[in-house]
Sequence to fold (564 residues):
Amino acid sequence: MSNSSDSRVRDSGWDDSLYEERRHAATPDRSEPPETSEPSATEAGGGGGGHRRTGRRPRRSRKARIIRGTAIAVSLAVLGASGAVWAYYEHLNGQIIKGQRDNGNSDVKPAKANAAGQTPMNILLLGSDSRNSAANLKLGGAKYTVGDKPRADVIMLMHLSADRKNMSVISIPRDTRVPIPECTDPDTGQKYAATTTSIINESLTRGGAGCTLATVQNLTNTYIDHWMVIDFAGVVKMADAIGGVQVCVRQNVWDHPTAAQSGGSGLKLKAGSREISGKTALQWLRTRHAWGSDIGRAKAQHMYMTSMMRKLRKQNIFTDTGHLMNLAEAATSSLKVSEEIGSIKKLYDLGMQLKTVPNNRITMLTMPTLKDPLNPKAHLVPGPDASQIWAMLRNDIAFDTNGKAKTGTASASPAASTAASAAPAASIAVSVVNGTAGTAAGTPVDHRAATLVTALKDAGFTKAEPDSTAQPSQVTTLSYPAADGDQGRADALAVAKALDIPKASVKKSSHVSSITLIAGADWTKGTDYAKSLPSAGSSLANADSINGANTKDCMSVYAPYQWS
Fold:
């Protein structure tokens, strides 16, 4: 290198002389003259030579000192930032409120993996009507409930398929009367007896989200992995953090008190498509009267959710630190989650799984209902068509027709054998119950138990008999006495195999004295259960389904709530 180029290197802050001593010390060259000898032009920095080395450490250039100082400062800044990031991560983790996953009486087991080792995931999403904070109280409505335990204003069951290629969200209207199992409050230890006279939103007051989870799990016979709860103030925070969501109404809407109906969300919008956020978003999600019913409200919530998902996917939040932090703050300070997903990492991983599903493979729908015969003006019960939805959910069957797969996991396959060997078919007693009414309000299929008994006897189960006990059920189950252990399960699986019933429907029970088959509303004809399963994208009567890619839906406004 020439003298002039050496000079440019030093001028730019890189001074080889800083390292010269180390090289000599590490590999001394005895052929070189001692350090007191006259340096060469290159060693001296180029100019010629009247300077001698004196044995002292070479003096560093001012620029070199600046560069090194800057490097140290940058290093400290990086380390400081890492510490700040970790502190912020811990801050976000600390904001998440966690609770017990399940504290109700439910023995539904997780779904079995498919051939690829994949399992579906089910998440219960709850909106709480709590007014027990200043922020919630400020948003108005039902101030007389301050101090009461919150109820579930919104109940949605989200199903993510085993292959993570499709997703469905099923709303259960809050005024639906369903059996609520015995639950224990995880905070106080108080026990609540099982009931069949309460509506589902009260389950949250009887042991928290874990009780609602057990209730929905029993209703659908589907294992629920996690739950999440958000209150009114949390909805407002999230809506603001997202930055507005597009919604649409066909007529001007004002959800206000009328002579016929008190209350109302206060939502007031002009007809057309517009972006809403904050309190207006909360009003949209809470509006019921202007949409005509609780079913209409569920549809409006689905429109909001699909629009929100589309917007979040368009935003590249990972390149916008401020937006990402706002979302993280809003989410962690607004959500209460079941303990097994109670960390930033686990919630992030969950979000990444949900993100893999394309918009056109997302289906939002509402559980079909009928008027409750005990209170037809105010309450509902699950309708017969609900059984089809739960059958599709349990067997991981897609609700859309945009994918190639027509069925889901191996949980839909016929029951297989266990380590124990089944007894001879002729020695196995089986009780068959006609539960096809679905609910107390439904109508059972005539002679259903007798039809299945005949099929079992033809298969060698000569001790099969019909049971006239009224046990309406949304889903088909095959139970064996818990006291019979592995032998009981092996015998029950043999019965299941004869009727092509999936092993997910076979479970032990302390409430039966022999193997008991309840033919639910999801199996109203035929003697081969698997053939009764709906195919992907089956028509869903009265379910108000919406596809996640649909951007043209608008809510129709009930006449008393239209304004000009």
User: Anything to note?
Assistant: The CA atoms of residues 428 and 463 lie 6 Å apart. The first helix runs from residue 3 to 11.
